[in-house]
Amino acid sequence: MKLTKKLFFNIHSWIGIRLSILFFIVCFSGTLATLSHEMDWLFNPTMRATPQKELASRNLIVSNFRELYPDAKIQLWMRPPERYLCDIIYKIEDDNLSYVFANRYTGEIQGESALTIQRFFRDLHYYLFIPFQIGNFVVLFFGFMLIISLITALCFYKKWWHKLFELQTGKGALVFFRSMHRLVGLWSIPFSLLFSITGIWYFIERANIAGIGEQVNPKPPQITSTDEPEAPVNLTYAIDYDNAVAMAEETIPGLVAGNLYVPQKSGDVLGIVGNSTVPLVRQRANRVYIDPQTQAVISAQKASEISTAMWINDSVDPLHFGYWGGLLTKCIWFIFGCGISSLILSGIWITYKRKSLKKKKSNQPIMGTWRFINWAIYGMLLGYMYVALIEKYHVALSAIIYITLGWLIFIFLSWYIFQYRLKRAVQKD
């Protein structure tokens, strides 16, 4: 097959049209996930914390937690890097999961929620709520599609580097959208490469290609116990968290302890992760495992000593979501994420209009059978999403109504722009 500009153009257009609905959902959900913590801060006042010099005792927070939830267990104690957010404690009670917000500076328990905005958009972008790893691989598939779309665009755009500042106006809507599509695409090249390459790495990790998944995700150690190994033990209130954190920070010089993985059954260890002097890696790059009964350090992993594969793996998440540099980099990632999402929308409009004009007389559907594939997966997404909201998160009816309203707005805008408005534009030409 001869590689021509027309071939590259057709591949680029095929990706943009045939996979348009899912492509946009994956890209835009990831964009929103970038600032999802900030959206939680904006819409949920109980998650807000006023930064202070001193942190409250971890034991005080647990004591306040126990007073409110004497029969509950802590599954994960999350301390977000954003200093203006409360700690998020994953509470398990009566086999139900919920999120408790503890002020890291005062120790006060400020609220509880069945679901957070951050968790919703992370789940949506991570696996589209579709279980059995099907959703994971559907999302990761678009990492390949994004880089193919970028490469083919650069192959058929003649001397694209000369058009970094070119925006054509006054020549009609189609010419304007084409020019804007090209301009935004050119300025988004570094981020398109970043998002696609990190997405491909996620695929390699998830598929465990060459054993990478097992290598970069070592299992925590287990403690030999005289108790029944599977007997559930509520160790939540038996641990001296202040002492454990102090030991972890002494074990890894420069460590600022963050998230805590609390033991759920006998034999489990207390896992402490956090940031150190090593830049550009997530908290999990530093790990300290402590025996919850003896308070002895069992093992530790230092970010400064991990393998290259593990360093790459622990750098991918901060790079993909842009939180490595705080709020500034997250805002930059959000802006360019919106830009890439707009490329999908403008590309759909350009290609739809061009093909609609060609098929104006035949009245044939542009997407063909692919529209059914897109809508079928979209339908699965919504179905499994509602199952998760009701059975896993037990969210209130009001939350379901708000989420449903958001999806209805998305569906209406899709119909209005790409069906109603596009038809009228084609009929005028």
Name the descriptors.
2 domains; 8 strands; PepSY-ass_TM; Putative iron-regulated membrane protein; transmembrane; membrane; transmembrane helix
Can you give a write-up of this model?
The chain is of the alpha+beta class. The chain folds into two domains: 5-42 and 120-207 and 326-428, no CATH class; 44-118 and 216-321, no CATH class. Helices cover 54% and strands 11% of the residues. The chain has 14 helices and eight strands. Strands 4-3-2-1-5-6-7-8 form an eight-stranded antiparallel sheet. Helix 2 (20-34) packs antiparallel against helix 5 and helix 12 crosses helix 14 (397-428). The longest helix is centred in the C-terminal third of the chain and has 32 residues, at 327-358. It is elongated, with a radius of gyration of 25 Å. It starts with a helix and ends with a helix. Mean pLDDT is 89; it is low at 228-233.
Domain module count? 2
Helix fraction? 40-55%
The residue ranges in which pLDDT falls below 50 over 5 or more consecutive positions are 228-233
Tally of helical runs:
14
- The beta-strand count equals 8
Radius of gyration: 25 Å
Q: Going across the biggest sheet, name each strand in turn.
A: 4-3-2-1-5-6-7-8
Q: What overall form do the CA principal axes indicate?
A: elongated
Secondary-structure element sequence?
HHHHEEEEHHHHHHEEEEHHHH
Q: Tell me the span between the first and last alpha carbons.
A: 35 Å
Largest sheet: 8 strands, antiparallel
Class from helix and strand fractions = alpha+beta
Strand content: 5-15%
On the 0-100 scale, what is the average pLDDT? 89
Protein name: Putative iron-regulated membrane protein
Keywords: Membrane, Transmembrane, Transmembrane helix
Transmembrane segments: 12-35, 134-157, 184-204, 332-352, 372-389, 395-418
Organism: Leeuwenhoekiella polynyae
